[in-house]
Amino acid sequence: MAAPMCEVKPERGRAENEQCEPGAAPYGNFVNYYRFNPPGERLRLIPPADLAAVFPGGRTVALDVGCNCGDFSIAMYKHLCDLKENLKWVTPGEMDLKLLGCDIDADLIQRATESNSFPESISYVTLDVMDLASRAAVLKPYLDKFDRTAFDICFCMSVTMWIHLNHGDQGLLDFLLCVSGLCKALLIEPQPWKCYRSAARRLRKLGQSKFDHFKSLSIKGDVAQKIQQFLITDCKMELVRCFGSTGWDRSLLLFKKSSLSQD
Ligand SMILES: C[S@@+](CC[C@H](N)C(=O)[O-])C[C@H]1O[C@@H](n2cnc3c(N)ncnc32)[C@H](O)[C@@H]1O
C-alpha cells in the first residue's frame, strides 16, 4: 500500500472519504485509520531495544494517548514482547507490560476493547485527555493499581495536530506539559504543518467552520521542531533519539525525563 502523506486521502472512494474527512472526524477519530497508516510502518523504524532502553525491565506501565481503535497499541505491545523473547534483555517472564489506551471517541474504544487479544495486559478507556478532571478520574486509579505515580512510557502518535487544531497554541502546550508530566519517557510523532493545511482546506471545502484556531495559530511551520524545543525547555525532557521519518514525513521522537528534573 502506498504510504499517504496526510491523514485525508483524496484518491479514496466517496464513502470512505466522507468517513475520513476532518469534518466527519474532527478529532482525527477516523474509523479506517489503520487501513492507511498500518502500525508496522512506524514500528519498523523503532528498534524495540532502543525504546526499552529508556525504561527499566520488570513491570512497565505504558499509556497510548489517542489510541484510536487500538491497532498501534497492540502492535507496540507485541513489538516489545518480541524483544523480550528474542533478545533476552530480561529473563523470561520478567518483563511485564501493562498498557492503557485512551481515546476521546467512545465508539473507537468499544472497537478496541472488543478486538483486544491481550485483555490481561492491555485495557482501553474513553477519555478526553484535555479534560483535567476526567484525566485524574481515569489515570490515577489505573496507576494506583500498579503502585505508580507516573507511566514508564507514553505513546503520543499523530495526536498533536488534532489537539492543536481543536485547542489552539495554548492547548497544544498544555497537552505537552500534561503528557510529559504523566510519564518518564515519551514517544511522540507530531504531524507536520502541511497536514494542518490539508485538514483545514478540506474542512473549508465541506463548508464547515470548525478548527476556529487554525488561522490564529502562531506555532506553525516546523511544528515538530517547536514541539521538541518546548519539551526540552519547558517540560524538562531530553531528546534521546529521533528514529527518522515515516512515509508520512512524520518524525518519531523519543524523549525521557531530564535527569535534572528527577526527584
Ligand atoms: C490520527 S489518530 C492517531 C491514532 C493513533 N495514535 C496512531 O497514530 O496510531 C488521532 C487520535 O487521537 C484521538 N484524540 C484526538 N483528540 C483527543 C483527545 N482530546 N483526547 C483523547 N484522544 C484524542 C482521536 O480520537 C484519534 O483516534
UniProtKB/TrEMBL annotation:
Gene Ontology CC entries for this record: cytoplasm
Main location per the UniProt record: cytoplasm
Catalyzed reaction equations: a 5'-end 5'-phospho-ribonucleoside-RNA + S-adenosyl-L-methionine = a 5'-end (5'-methylphospho)-ribonucleoside-RNA + S-adenosyl-L-homocysteine; a 5'-end 5'-phospho-ribonucleoside-RNA + 2 S-adenosyl-L-methionine = a 5'-end (5'-bismethylphospho)-ribonucleoside-RNA + 2 S-adenosyl-L-homocysteine
EC number per UniProt: 2.1.1.-
Ranges where the Bin3-type SAM domain occurs: 40-260
Enzyme superclass (EC): transferase
Coiled coil: none
PANTHER family assigned to the protein according to its UniProt record, in alphabetical order: BICOID-INTERACTING PROTEIN RELATED (PTHR12315), RNA 5'-MONOPHOSPHATE METHYLTRANSFERASE (PTHR12315:SF1)
Protein name (Swiss-Prot/TrEMBL): RNA methyltransferase
Organism taxonomic ancestry: Eukaryota, Metazoa, Chordata, Craniata, Vertebrata
